[in-house]
Amino acid sequence: MAVSSQSPVRSKPLMPSPAPPEALTVSDSSEPGFAVYVHWPFCAQKCPYCDFNSHVRSDGWDEKRFLAAYLRELDHTAAQIGSRSVASVFFGGGTPSLMQPQTLGAIIEHIDHVWGLASGAEITLEANPGSVDAGRFSGYRSAGANRVSLGFQSLRDPDLKRLGRIHTSREALAALDIARANFERISFDLIYARPQQTCDDWRTELSEALALGPTHLSLYQLTIEPGTAYEKLYNAGKLSVPPAEAASDLFELTQELTEAAGLAAYETSNHANPGEESRHNLVYWRYGEYAGIGPGAHGRVLSNGERLATATERHPETWLAQVEASNHGVITQESISDAEAADEMLMMGLRLTEGLDLARLARICGVRPNPETLRQLIGLGVIERDENAGRVRAVGRGRFILNEIVLHLSRSFVPVRFP
Ligand SMILES: C[S@@+](CC[C@H](N)C(=O)[O-])C[C@H]1O[C@@H](n2cnc3c(N)ncnc32)[C@H](O)[C@@H]1O
Ligand code: SF4
Predict the structure, then answer these.
(1) Among 232, 266, 284, which residue terminates a domain?
(2) Best substitution site from 12, 52, 56, 220 to test ligand 2's pocket, by max atoms within 8 Å of Cβ?
(3) What are the tens digits of pLDDT across the range 305-357?
(4) Which family would the database say this protein is a member of (predicted)?
(5) Is residue 338 part of a domain?
């Protein structure tokens, strides 16, 4: 995930991230740039654990109509916020690998037309291994995508079945081969802390995954999400997940194995070789600006000097009808105050291994945390300060209690006056 189908703010899981100071590998973070998130809401089958904005349509969908709506919403957003250079585009879902390559190509072309793609812009497509075929993948590459994120979830067939996945581990590996034949930058997702999973199971499975030589991995702890089939089973006592302590051991094991393989975490659930971090993810976590296009997409954009939080209609056909009637599917558009932006920025930045850039917080939100509060939290061992880089990050137990840390820091904010 990237995170976020709907909202990148809700990156799963809210688990700790280790923060070795040496791992500050990502260079210029002063201005994360502008990104575009495009949400494709359809899936072949609904996975029982998933609460993303994903819908199954046995009769399919009118892709031409949807394409026209995406283009109209892009026009509308561009007219609202003005010119930008696009550093990253992320097609998330749902299952964007159900899109025709021509649809993807037309959207990319239109993004370039309304804003302009920066040279070397990152263009990622999320793909379900059950809907990967060679012809389509070469079509996506020709259409302009240059990075793929595959939803493996597990390398164990019985677990894939329990997770309600439409693919086997063999198909996942075949999808990886197809992806590698077409793309240089590939990531895959795994879910751990699955029912009955032990540390030994995960050690073997993650080691197998690392032996595949990924340069980027998203490793999510299974979360029981409200409204999902898994929640019903969980509440009925028919599904159990590892208790908090076991989940924390699984998390630490994840850090140990990925670090040893050169894929240290750069964010709570995201791991990469130095330089292979997802630029799109970094726009979210460094609190950059992003437009959200498509059903149930969220955005944070600047318009006429105002920072706006936008969200579009989630239901695909309702979104379509709204765009056809009024050129956009936005259902909420709220102005974000500096204080709210500061809290959001803290929440996102503390998850990063590089930490939150205090100078940027001051520049954007006009505040800085009270030095005494920082000292107290450092004394408690829940945050760490990198004096040279002017950054703070959550460490140790702090990685599990981000909400509380944000609350403390936020209450301590003092205004910064620039000469
Ligand atoms: C939009 S999906 C990825 C693309 C595609 N739909 C697929 O599943 O293959 C985003 C990722 O979120 C993760 N995810 C979704 N629900 C989750 C949950 N309840 N707990 C942990 N991870 C979850 C999965 O790893 C999934 O690959
Ligand atoms: S395929 Fe992906 S988006 Fe669709 S239901 Fe499954 S996890 Fe969610």
Answers:
(1) 284
(2) 52
(3) 999 999 999 999 999 999 999 999 999 999 999 999 999 999 999 999 999 99
(4) Belongs to the anaerobic coproporphyrinogen-III oxidase family. HemW subfamily.
(5) no
* Residue-range definition of the domain harbouring residue 406: 345-415
- Does one domain contain both 214 and 142? yes
Amino acid at residue number 363: R
Q: Largest alpha-carbon pair distance within the chain?
A: 63
Residue with the smallest CA separation from ligand 1 atom 25 is 189
Q: Ligand 2: which residue has its CA nearest to atom 2?
A: 94
79 touches 115 (CB < 8 A): no
CA separation (Å) from 208 to 48, 53, 218, 264? 25, 31, 15, 17
Q: Beta strand pairing status for 289-293 and 34-40?
A: parallel
Instruction: Assess whether the C-beta atom of 222 lies below 6 angstroms from ligand 2.
Output: no
Judge if 279 and 366 occupy the same domain: no
Closest-lying ligand to the alpha carbon of 127?
1
Q: Is 308 in the pocket of ligand 2 (CB under 6 A)?
A: no
Q: Which residues have any ligand 1 atom within 6 Å of their CB?
A: 1, 5, 12, 49-50, 52, 92-93, 95, 126, 128, 151, 153, 189, 191, 220, 222-223, 225
pLDDT on residue 30: 60
Residue 97 sits in the same domain as residue 220: yes
At 12-25, the pLDDT tens digits run: 433 333 222 222 23
43 lines ligand 2 (CB under 6 A): yes
Residue 16 lies in a domain: no
Contact 77, 133 (CB under 8 A): no
Same domain, 80 and 204: yes
Residue 164 alpha carbon, nearest atom of ligand 2: 6
